[in-house]
Amino acid sequence: MSDQRPHCLVIGVGAGTGLACVRRFVESGYKVSMIARHEGRLQTWQQDISNTAAYPSDITELDQFRDTLRQIKDEQGLPSKVIYNASLATFAPYTELDPKDLERNFRANTSGLLITAQEFAPAMIDAGGGAIIITGNTSARRGTPRFVGFAPTKASQRILGESLARELGPKGVHVAYIMIDAMIDMPMVRKRMPDAPIELFAQPADIAAEVYHIAHQPPSTWSYMHEIRPFGETW
């Protein structure tokens, strides 16, 4: 990747929001490091998109994840923008949920965010600033049946992000949370809901544009909580 470009890290790159964020930042002049569990897909995207670098890592293996973040910083430099798009979920009635699944999801959704801040925020402060943008969903604010293995981990993610925002904001690091109240228009979702109208879907490129905008807010108008949804969504 070009060392002349500013550095963005996208954590949790899949075929929807994560990949759209990679493309959006590259198109805007960044080099982008990508983290995901699936090495094959990451390598394909690295070949297809210039100025990207693939770093396969399982966030639930926290020590391995921390080592990956340090490797990225050593090889690519400190990212000025970090997009935390990692998400892991288990859907089941509370009577059937294995507590180990809840703990695994917590590591991906919340503990991984803490490690990310620990590894990058102090250096961002020393460098004069940066941004950590977290993508979430409505589970961050409400619990519903069968979401007992997911909603608590996203709610804790939102609160952790707010704690980080309050501590890091005065030191020059912008932390923001984007709550995506939508089905995201991607192949696996369309396959499950082939008859759903288009107005109920959020387009990954449009989500990525909002992520990019929030990551570049001027310091005089920083914000933390953002809710975005398609115009056809009931709320």
Overview of the structural elements:
39% of the residues are buried. Strand 4 (81-84), helix 4 (99-127) and strand 5 (130-137) form a beta-alpha-beta unit. The protein is an alpha/beta fold and 235 residues long. It has a single domain (7-228), classed as NAD(P)-binding Rossmann-like Domain (Rossmann fold). Helix 1 (17-27) crosses helix 7 (204-215) and helix 3 (62-76) packs parallel to helix 4. The model has no long low-confidence stretch (mean pLDDT 94). It has helices spanning 17-27, 39-48, 62-76, 99-127, 151-168, 187-192, 204-215; strands at residues 7-11, 31-36, 52-56, 81-84, 130-137, 173-180, 183-184, 201-202, 225-228. The protein is 43% helix and 19% strand. Strands 3-2-1-4-5-6-9 form a 7-stranded parallel beta sheet, sandwiched between helices.
Q: What labels would you give this structure?
A:
235 residues; alpha/beta; Rossmann fold; seven-stranded parallel β-sheet; two-stranded parallel ribbon; 7 helices; globular
In short, what is this structure?
The protein is of the alpha/beta class. Helix content is 43%, strand content 19%.
Distance between the termini: 42 Å
Characterize the overall form.
Answer: globular
Give the strand order, joined by hyphens, for the main sheet. 3-2-1-4-5-6-9
Report the count of strand segments: 9
What is the beta-strand fraction?
Answer: 15-25%
State the fourth-level CATH superfamily. NAD(P)-binding Rossmann-like Domain
Rg result: 17 Å
CATH architecture: 3-Layer(aba) Sandwich
Total discrete domains: 1
Instruction: Report the uncertain regions.
Output: none
Which sheet architecture does the biggest sheet show? 7 strands, parallel
Mean pLDDT: 94
The helix-and-strand class reads alpha/beta
Give the helix level as a range of percent: 40-55%
What's the CATH topology label? Rossmann fold
Helix segment tally: 7
> For the record, what CATH class applies?
Alpha Beta
What are the secondary-structure elements, in order, as H or E? EHEHEHEHEHEEHEHE
